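Risk register update: the risk of archive-format incompatibility is retired. Evidence:
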Amino acid sequence: METRDALQRLLEALARHVPSLAADLRGPASSDDLDEVRRAAREVGLPEPSALLEALAVHDGQRGEASGIFYGLAWMPARDVANELRRFAELATDDEELSHARSAAPGARPLRWARRVPFAHDYGGNFIALDYVPAEGGSSGQVVNAGRDVEHVAVIAPSFGAFLHAYAEALDSGRFVVTEDGSLRHPDAAHWLDVLEGVQGEEPAAAPSPDWDSVESERDPALALARTAGPADSEAGRWIGRWAVEAYWRHVGGPDVRVAEMRLRELGDAERAFAVRLMLGLLGRLETSGQGAWLCSEGWPVLHRLTSETFVPLPLLERLVTLLADARAPDDRLGRTFENGLAVVHRAFLRHSGINDPSLRDAVDRLLSRTERVLGPAAAARHRTLRTFFD
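Archived output:
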């Protein structure tokens, strides 16, 4: 009963404080979808996440037409949980070094993917998940942060039911901010996962950013393009150039440094909007030249963070949609490019409504058609909510 009672309390808190998000919840998950989660868990050797399944039997996550209910992270439908669960298992074995965070709170292991069952995400490769490989002092099924950007694994709650209960308490005590576009945010940061990086244990020391001049840009034409992403005297342009160097170091097996990503997210409103424009221009040039697929795949998650707090005007929004619809990433990166890119597109559209722009509508239809070919009919159907932003 712990999960059912905690979920009911959370639903009541959402209805009181952010009814628009409560209205975004889906109905109960089907038996087939719940069974798919059980099947995926068995395939990767994990126990059945019974508490999560109990909650999904009441609400199958969110429709995706509003902000995520967990400080901006969206509750995932059962089918998405099953798909990501399998992907987590693959990522945990693909690259052992990239699978490890720098540190972890007591009771947790510094792992980004292994033996996790994700249930909420930011559309940019980061998740809240159930942890089935706790360290000494932890509990199986505890709730932790997971995903590509995690440097410090925090223990958020000892169980899924306790997580729901604590989150409902946070809402009732006023520990939230509702932005102008209706998004739910933690009061201490634009992204909840940035808060979690420092709530447990000591903050890991940031490695120094690789020096731009220490990289021979002739090794990869993408770096030469990135060097001219923006004016040298522009803070946004300067940090995009540094971001490209850090991405290059990771690409060639160097240190996982993300200083520039943090600096881009800390830009003021005007500079952040300029950074969105510069990043789109850079990715478009990389696509046109057929160079730098590795840099394109790194760029979409950064764009997601930038657009989380930035209004994207319609001409730039059409450019964003068109860029993704025409993406030419290699086959082994195309699926991830579309997943990350669609997250950016959805985030940018959330600040718009009643759009009357035939050209943009055509671009969205073309993107949905390409999405069906790349990710399959089920994924395309989920993303058809983009059409609801038009008159």
